[in-house]
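In this supplementary section we document a worked example of the pipeline. Step one takes a protein sequence of length 162 as its only input; no multiple sequence alignment statistics are reported here. Step two produces a three-dimensional model, which step three serialises into structure tokens for compact storage. The input and output of this example are shown verbatim.
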Amino acid sequence: MIVSSLGNTELLKLRKTAFLCSREIPASVVLKCYDWAIEQRNQGNCIISGFHSKIERDVFHYLLAGSQPVIMALARGMKEKIEPELKTAIDTGRLLIVTPFENRVKRVTKETAEKRNRFMIELSDEVVIGYACKGGMLERLVAEVQAKGSSMLYLFFLLHSG
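The serialised model returned by step three reads:
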């Protein structure tokens, strides 16, 4: 459930792809993530992500360079200060910032990040996992989604096995 939003809520009606990626990512996967982001930008696809980890922030940078819609899901309450590049995207109607948290939640924790990831999956039509570390939160989340028999999950690049 969206507790707070800022920007174009009409973006929620679009087909959305969630992008999630572990914080630790091998160099061999980084360029694949960048290529994927550029492809999504060029195709005008709506991407939802937390854009929190380094690789997710890089993907966000590539997406913002285009004109397609983007949804940022926060793992805390709504931002109090909006960065100029975000304000521009909000003002042009191509960015929506959403959060499942009250404003009193000020810090991102492991628990809020996991809740945010589940929230993004619920909002999305498909999910792309750039990389999931063995034993990490994303690996567990992938297993849960697969156990439910969902066809919306794509292990787009690699699930670390060792």
